[in-house]
Design brief:
alpha/beta; four-stranded mixed sheet
Length: 267
């Protein structure tokens, strides 16, 4: 019937592949793959994404995760309005909870997450991107939080936007549903990098090269601290940071990396 989506269809909605960097470990790439619907996720796609992220977070070999959309038109161009038009309150609750879990899986992921924004980035797509650590977009990308145009508010990780882009701009976007272009998204601090379409992979690779130059354990510890900074007072965050630094000295990573740097001219 109409509501049956087979398991294989769901698996196709979110693709995973790995880029093996030898002794440097692996980079995972997760691709939203529903291009005929602007890579809209729907409830099934969101669940598949959550499952993929849950699996990946236990992969000790990972150094970074890249999230992108299939094709060159959309990252995630919003949600499935045809389905949502018929929701009852319980459906709205369930679908929104899935969006929250999808975003939370990105925000709390143990290694850095790069959003490679290759086109439309609306609604839950913009929330997922906001939950990432680094965002690069192609210059044809468009952004927005259109929910109020469809009778519902932006309710989940839209809450990340005020800190990221400032209170005024975040409020403007969620109240009006207006779209902004990639240049404006960079100007307000949503994007750390803005490039032509053909420059997306190089931009991502630049960040990956920098991450791979860092201590793998240090980067994972830093990511945890970033999540602490979000919810702690400055003093509490500093105290947690002190403990985190002490913990790093229980590994050989600081000694190895510092000694290599000190000795770099001698070799």
């Amino acid at each position: 019937g109409h509501y049956m989506t087979s398991e294989t269809d769901i698996e196709d909605l979110v693709l995973v592949d790995f880029d093996d960097r030898g002794q440097d470990g692996r980079i995972a790439r997760v691709t939203f793959n529903n291009p005929q619907k602007r890579n809209a996720l729907g409830v099934g796609g969101k669940q598949r994404f959550i499952n993929v992220m849950t699996e990946l977070r236990h992969d000790e070999s990972l150094r970074a995760l890249v999230i992108t959309g299939a094709g060159e038109k959309s990252f995630v161009g919003g949600s499935n309005l045809a389905d949502m038009a018929h929701y009852k309150p319980a459906d709205g609750h369930a679908a929104s909870t899935k969006t929250h879990y999808a975003c939370d899986a990105v925000r709390t992921f143990p290694v850095p997450v790069i959003a490679r924004i290759n086109g439309y980035c609306f609604g839950s797509g913009m929330e997922i991107a906001a939950a990432a650590d680094m965002r690069v977009a192609a210059d044809h990308a468009k952004f927005g939080m259109p929910e109020t145009r469809f009778g519902i508010p932006s309710g989940m990780e839209a809450a990340l936007l005020p800190r990221l882009i400032g209170w005024g701009k975040a409020v403007e976007l969620v109240l009006t549903g207006d779209h902004i272009d990639a240049l404006e998204a960079q100007r307000i601090g949503f994007l750390q990098k803005l490039v032509p379409s053909e420059g997306l992979d190089d931009a991502v690779e630049g960040w990956i090269a920098s991450l791979l130059a860092c201590g793998p354990n240090a980067v994972r510890v830093q990511k945890r601290l970033i999540n602490d900074w979000e919810r702690m007072s400055i003093t509490d965050a500093a105290k947690v940071g002190i403990e985190a630094i002490a913990g790093c000295y229980a590994t050989d990573e600081p000694h190895t990396l510092m000694t290599a740097f000190v000795n770099r001219k001698k070799s």
